[in-house]
UniProtKB/TrEMBL annotation:
The keyword Glycoprotein does not apply. Keywords: Oxidoreductase. Belongs to the short-chain dehydrogenases/reductases (SDR) family. This is 3-oxoacyl-[acyl-carrier protein] reductase. It holds the Pfam family adh_short_C2. It comes from Pseudonocardia thermophila. One of its GO terms (molecular function) is oxidoreductase activity. Gene3D superfamilies: NAD(P)-binding Rossmann-like Domain. Transmembrane segments: none annotated. The keyword Plastid does not apply. InterPro entries: NAD(P)-bd_dom_sf, Sc_DH/Rdtase_CS, SDR_fam.
Length: 257
């Protein structure tokens, strides 16, 4: 299935974990994918994977909290492609535990989790309004936005902001046919789990995660990154042409308990 043939996509935070799988999935389905990431070497590695699979990808090093850099990225896509059909933001950081958060860290988490989502999405509108066909923007929240997280109130707050942004931008884009949706993953097996569990070994991370999912996930396991990518690809495709303003939990049933 090549739902994105002759389409141009941008995945911000597209070089590792879920973002990497999303970049690979969109490319396999025919998109020219701009793989944008703070880690430029990782973005290059993903582009090489895409090329090895006969796809097309362009690696870009970008800081998603740098508004000038984002404007330059969109200008580059406009110059090189003249159109943009799909934008997905996978940028985000886990919040620090507890209530006592240093102001500097607070500002950093807010910048990465809210500011980047806002500007990745809003700057896209100009080029997407000049693009024909189905167009989709998707952002990434978390089930922590829907349930709350006593582990990190700050993280829950920033991800809840992304769900509000999604709904507002969906109304802004509806008249132009630009759809805006939000993916809310639950527990996912990615390298970030080591961060969430404060630098524990891989074995310790898996043990703690298994205990968490056994207690909280009805399906009894964590998601794999490719399962998140499949949902993003659906939302970005014309199969979801009448879907906008939604927040889609991908969590094995966690939020329905």
């Amino acid at each position: 299935m090549r739902r994105f043939e002759d389409r141009v996509a941008l995945v911000v935070g597209g070089a590792s974990g879920m973002g990497r799988e999303i970049s690979l999935r969109l490319a396999r389905e025919g998109a020219v994918v701009y793989v944008a990431d703070l880690n430029g070497k990782a973005a290059e590695a993903v582009a090489q994977e895409v090329a090895a699979d006969s796809g097309k990808a362009v690696p870009v090093q970008v800081d998603a909290t740098d508004v000038t850099a984002l404007r330059e990225l969109y200008a580059r896509i406009d110059d090189e492609q003249g159109r943009l059909h799909v934008v997905h933001s996978q940028v985000g950081l886990p919040g620090p535990p507890g209530l006592d958060v240093a102001e500097e860290k607070f500002d950093w988490i807010v910048d990465v989790n809210i500011k980047s989502a806002y500007y990745v999405a809003t700057i896209a509108f100009d080029l997407m309004r000049r693009t024909d066909g189905d167009r989709s923007i998707s952002l990434t929240a978390s089930t922590s936005a829907l349930l709350g997280s006593p582990y990190s109130p700050l993280y829950s707050t920033t991800k809840a902001a992304v769900t509000g942004l999604t709904r507002a931008l969906a109304l802004v884009g509806a008249g132009d046919g630009i759809r805006v949706n939000c993916i809310a993953p639950g527990s996912v097996e990615t390298p970030w789990q080591a961060v969430l569990y404060q630098g524990a070994s891989l074995a310790e991370v898996r043990e703690q995660q298994q205990a968490y999912v056994k207690a909280n996930v009805p399906m009894g396991r964590a998601a794999q990154p490719h399962e998140i990518a499949g949902v993003v690809a659906f939302v970005a495709s014309s199969d979801a042409s009448f879907v906008t303003g939604t927040v889609i939990p991908v969590d094995g049933g966690t939020v329905i308990q």
